[in-house]
Amino acid sequence: MILIVPDGLNVPRTKRRVRGICMFVLIPGAGGAAWYWHRVVPELHARGHEAVAVELPGADESAGLPEYTDAVVAAIGDHDDVVLVAQSMGGFTAPMVCARVQVDLLVLVNAMIPLPGETPGQWWDNTGSPAARVAAAEAGGYSPEFDLSTYFLHDVPAEVAAAGAAHDRPEADAAFSQPCGIERWPDVTTRVLAAAEDRFFPSEFQRRVARDRLGINADDVPGGHLVALSRPVDLVDRLIGYLR
Predict the structure, then answer these.
(1) C-beta of residue 186 within 8 angstroms of C-beta of residue 95
(2) With contact defined as beta carbons under 8 Å apart, do 91 and 193 qualify?
């Protein structure tokens, strides 16, 4: 497990509470690269909060959702005032973490929202994700055939996308067949952020799933599916806004 933690923020717990400092724990999507959050961590640091991005063993066929959950729980440790933020497939890990440790706020960012016992492999057809993606492509005038450039990198700065190639790795098949190990959605305040230009999980699709499965309305944030890479300041604005 690799943790990305900003320097100079080992603030004692009592002082963190007085100063209103939160610990943001950031879960990446498929592939599990903590690097995905590398533009968000320093932005949270600059605003006086702590942040840790968790590296998950996404390419390891011997690991899956339970191991991802273990890694995030270990990153939280004995921290309090925890804000758990999950991107894309990280939405399956997040509620499993919340079932095990105290979390003050859960934010799902362009995330898969699972039902108890549902597997990531089942989620696509259960939610109608493929059809929603194709319909949005036809309405938006871009190709319905999936490729990274069209669906993930269309709004990511070229230099950031180029740097990301070294961190890109596939998600092992193992996790797609493993159920989300919760009996019900955890009793934690949950917010859903849907990026307005997300082509992979179109915003209207995300809104429907959030209403159907959680009974809440998703909030907008500018950017595409990889919003932490394309619009980190806008994303952090939203995250900090939830604290108020």
Answers:
(1) yes
(2) no
Share of the chain above pLDDT 70, in %: 92
Query: What predicted TM-score, i.e. pTM, was given to this entire model?
Result: 0.92
- Give the pair of three-digit tokens for residue 165: 């190639």
| DSSP letters for 30-51 | TT--GGGGTTTHHHHHHTT-EE
Q: What is the pLDDT of residues 107-131, one digit of tens each?
A: 999 999 999 999 999 999 999 999 9
**Do 242 and 216 meet the contact criterion of CB atoms below 8 Å apart?**
no
Among 189, 44, 16, 184, which Cα is nearest to 114's?
184
pLDDT recorded at residue 2: 40
Residue type, 125: D
Out of 8-12, 87-91, 104-108, least confident range: 8-12
Residues 223, 209 contacting (CB under 8 angstroms): no
- What are the DSSP calls for 112-172, one per residue? --PPTT--HHHHHHHHTHHHHHHHHHHHHTS-SS--HHHHTSTTS-HHHHHHHGGG--PPP
Question: How many other C-beta atoms lie within 10 A of the C-beta of residue 79?
Answer: 16
Residue, of 239 and 5, whose pLDDT is higher: 239
The burial of 231, by beta-carbon neighbours within 10 Å (0-12 exposed, 13-18 middle, 19 or more buried), is given as buried
